[in-house]
Amino acid sequence: MRLLIAIALLFLYTGSLGAQDISLTGKVLDKNTNTPIPGASIFIPELNRGVVTDVDGKFIIQGLPDRNITLQVTFVGYSNKVQTIRPAQFSRDLIVELEESITNFEEVVISGAYIMSKESSPISIEKINRTEILKMPSPSLMSSIARTPGVSEISLGPGISKPVIRGLSFSRVLSLYQGARFENQQWGADHGLGLSETGIGNVELIKGPASLIYGSGAMAGVVNLIEEKDADAGIIEGDANLRFFSNSLGLRSEVGVKGANENGFFWSLRGAAESHADYVDGDGNAVGNTRFNTQNLKAGAGIRKSWGDTRIRYTYLKQKLGILEEDALDELVTTRGDRSLQLPFQDVTDHFINSETNIYVGEDKIKATLGYHLNFREEVEDDFDAVDLGLITRNFMYDVKYFKGLTPYLEAIVGIQGFYLRNLNYEDAGEFLIPDATKDDRSLYALLNYNKDKWVLQGGLRYDYRKVTADASAQHFVDYGFILPENPSDRRLERTFDGVTASGGATFRPNSTWRYRLNVAQGFRAPDLAELFSNGPHPGTSRFERGDASFGREQNVQTDFGIRYSKTNFTLSGEVFYNHVNNYIFFSPSEEQIDDLTVWVFEQADARLYGGELALDIHPASMKWVAFSTGYSTVIGQRRSDMSFLPYIPAFRWTQTVDFKLKNTGLIKNPYISILGNWVFDQNRSAPLEDDTPGYYLLGLNVGGSIPVGKNLLDVYVSGSNILNTTYLDHMSLFRPFGVNQLGRNIAVNVRIPF
Q1: 262 burial via Cβ count (<10 Å: 0-12, 13-18, 19+)
Q2: Which of 6, 217, 487, 605 registers the highest number of CB atoms within 10 A of its CB?
Q3: pLDDT tens digits, residue range 205-239?
Q4: pTM for the whole thing?
Q5: Other CB atoms closer than 10 Å to residue 427's CB: what's the count?
Q6: If residue 131 lies in a helix (H) or strand (E), which one and from where to where?
Q7: How far apart are CA 482 and CA 432, in angstroms?
Q8: Do 385 and 221 touch, CB atoms closer than 8 A?
């Protein structure tokens, strides 16, 4: 951690030399009427900065670098405008014209390494902004993003969930937090991703292999949680968010404040707390010990100048999560609203500190991301004072990129990336599932991006090396009788994994009507510690787990092809993919029993996954107050040897949404009504020893608006999920084998109070 802080301070000191002060002034106008648009947002993603136009539609941004930057200009009811400019070349105001539109395709994304609109990116990237999460919140952030086509979740109750992207999950989906990879033992079936929405500006989802950019673990895709934008110069602002969930009687409160001075120093502070009782299914039955609570604290500070910017952030996250037990379903049910801690439960604590620095070198840029993550995971079953499974993970990570402009249309990125992770068991833990271990991960990569006129072309190469060392020589392992695979005499095992990855893609936009996208990408994943070395009972899952140290690394090649056709009144888009996976690792029960626990073993076989997403948006030009959208997503996963189906593959899904934007009424500004439908089809392509799951239909309703309070607008969002109170089983729920139903009707009320 000292090294991390020292490097961040060094960047801060060296970058402060030779700063310049370039300003950009401009005006945002309505394209048809030529009238100014007050309140339009101008955002620069490279700098994480933005301003809002004044009553005359004017804006000014100071302290800019002497290089090309990306501007995204947005306003409600208008199409987004994205353009690349060089501020020093503007001797007069920049004029930005916006056109009235219901739909917005030109959203800037940063997860593909290059900053561009998501429509131009050859990589399929979806973006979910914070307002969408607030309008229809869920107890878990992963549940909120699982409404995205091609994305779902594996859950163990409302407090524990992890993402599934096009059928791939667990350690195949990489999580990024504050620009760095986030590892908190998500390999476990009962281990949630463990990240919250606190202080998040938006979430970007890469659907498809992104190993070229992010390394091992990104073979399915990436969940990138992006921080809220920094405060504007000379501004101190804050907000409070209060939320209530009717089903679990859940309460969430969040307060944040941020500021910046005229000299470029900026800071932020935010905290949140959340508490839920047991949830109730569609039949009115409480599901015992699904209660949970979390506390979250974040702080950050940095400086921005024309040379670039640097910042350092700290996050603390504490979670206490109840665990349902199959043989104690009735005993765990207590009084309605009871939030007291019950056995068994998980106690998870995360400390995450990282720095991000951007330094401009002429037309080029250096970006350095450093992080240190300390994770404590305790699983307690029988006694509040005894830890059954206890793990400590320490992970130092780094990613240094050099962006080099080769021509006005061609840019290269070269970089080094890696992490050193050490995982230790509590010496006094009651049980041991995996041994102590270290991971040493190193990589080198290079990418090219060509962007001119109608074409975007991307491609690159990457080399990775990982050494995994398992150590069960400590006395507590000997006393417990923990055995590594093949039982080596020194009780140590070492595995290495390396290889080359390549990816390439293209986007062709001949006009505003058509967009074509093709991407062929390799991905890979080294087996995680549980898959290689597990050999013990896993508290909370009621099973004995056994790994295989002979596994090779998973390797996949995925081909994606997408088309979008857009006219004034509607937009039709489709994506298809085929994923060819070698050495796919999956989990299945055996007939062996140890101490009344079924032995679950990891297996490895070649597999394939294929499917796609189809979306239709209807936005009549004559009725700008209404819009209709529908989407259909499919994925099928099979072993290539016998074409039997893979476990935990989501069912086909058809979603429908009707949005009504109403006129201002009295004190209520920007009122809206949204009706949402989600039809999940029968999942009758079950894996061996896995049961089929019947389909179901869920209906949702969102209403809301803003109320003027002084100079600010108080936002009120009311959302209803499963309002028909349907009783159903979700195929992706780890409760499904127990016959435990999902969440019944829930009404969520969210109030955002700016100050």
Answers
A1: exposed
A2: 217
A3: 999 999 899 988 899 999 999 999 999 888 899 99
A4: 0.89
A5: 10
A6: helix 130-135
A7: 7
A8: no
